[in-house]
Amino acid sequence: MKQFILPFVFLFSVLATAQNAVNDTILLSRKNAETLFLQNNLSLIAERLNIDIAQAQIIQAKLWPNPTFSINEFNLWRNTGSEELPAIWGNYGRFQEFGASLEQLVYTAGKRKKMIAIEKVGADMALEYYKNFLRNLKMEFRNNLTAMQYNQAKKTVYQKQLQSVQNLTKAYAIQVKEGNISQGDYIRLKASELEFLNEINAITIENNSLQSEMKKLLHLSPLSYIKLSQDDAIPDMNAVNDLNILNSLADDANYRPDVKLAKLNEKYNQNQYVYQKALKTPDITLEASYDRGGNIMQNFFGLGFSIDLPFFDRNQGNIKAAQFSVEQSKLNKQEVLNNAQAEILETYNNFKAVQKLYENIGTDYQIKLDKMLDSYLTSFKNRNISLLVYLDYVEAYLNNKMILLDTQKELNNRLEEFKNASGQELN
Q: What is this structure's pTM?
């Protein structure tokens, strides 16, 4: 009997565990969600490693080239007519000749310092690349948060109305059977119920897509379900209200990582130009050598050096190319700055337009709208208004609710656009 029961107990426990996993709801505020995002996002972590890579390049640039040690002219057998030399060890080495040399490359014209300067600018650029990547990823993430908040708030509104209509539909079905209400009124209510069900289904499908994208950004289990708090659906706008955008337009543009990158790119090319000019000065190779039995001295020690003679190649082409790169980066920097200032002004004006619309609606309008709906529902139940009047108001209520939610969503999105354009958090 126990052998028969145990498989079913095991199957039940597995199903229960799976059900709990699917229902693993995570309640998050926008702030908590962003904290998880910054900690867990894999692409962000990977991009951050580029800063460490750039720092490692600075370490490499500081290193001197390794010396070169070589042994040559070593004979393995005695040639006819070989002169006898003093033995190296025991009886060995009386007829062995060999040479050895040690070479060290020495950079001239401060090339090493100039290369270090280039790599340091490269490290600064890697940091700004990361900031720019983070800036754009934050905007995408926050817009996804806004879309999810909007989606869930919209679903709550429709579910509330669906519940009311379903209760009325059930009551009407009973009244139709008793002959107290016409079949037409019941069909009209049933049609509204189906419309709400269809809308909720579309909202659910959209939410599934948002859930999938958000779980990838937060690196959460696919079986989890994210529920966002609606308490912070309205952004804090005080920082933007206090900002004198027109007077600080140029300063705000300097906060943007892409503007900083354009400036660093100019500096990088300037350092490259200086380095290319230094390359026209030949480097020197110092040499210390030893030769046994190869010339008039049995043991010869010598010093020497080698240097390229810059008769033909004085790095003219690379110097000219680096000079053009400097001029090009100056033009690119000015273009990026102009675009940044235009974006800041455009996104600021867009945000202020939506903010004005939101303020015109009024913060207490939503409360009044909900109270009015309850009042209409009560009047309808008391037979003070007709079904047509009630459903007309429900339709008007939903339209106004969607305008409110759309405005809140647009307010968040426009604020994030302005933050992204100015390169500042503002709060």
A: 0.80
